[in-house]
Amino acid sequence: MDSRSYKTLSLNLKTADKKWVIVDAEGQVLGRLASQISMLLRGKHKPGYTPHADCGDNVIVINAEKVRVTGRKMDQKEYVRHTGYMGGQRFTPIRRMLAEKPERVIEFAVWGMMPKGPLGRKVMRNLRVYAGTTHPHTAQAPEPAVLPKP
Question: Which one of 4, 40, 88, 134 has the lowest number of neighbouring Cβ atoms within 10 Å?
């Protein structure tokens, strides 16, 4: 038996087959959508997944304002930030965030599922989120991602 046929593949930036995929967020539940997007960004759906390399796809998310949240999250969930000054903790409810910046809701949810560090920041640059149905990436000919329906 030839031992070379069992060689483990380790993808890098040159050997990774990075594609452009488009995801429609209309009617999707926020957390489940974010986990599927993070899987596409990391490249875990590919047979040659390499944990220490950026081998995932470029993901375009449209209709970010039409994402769903379940339960009482619309009334209870808050995003927290700090201004850097004493007593500068600020809270933004998800209802206001969806009305003003719906892209940020999906970006925050996906960032929570990424590894924290240089690789996670690099992979997050492959995510583009848009509130409407139009996007400026038609030249890349994105393929629709196959996600299970809610």
Answer: 4
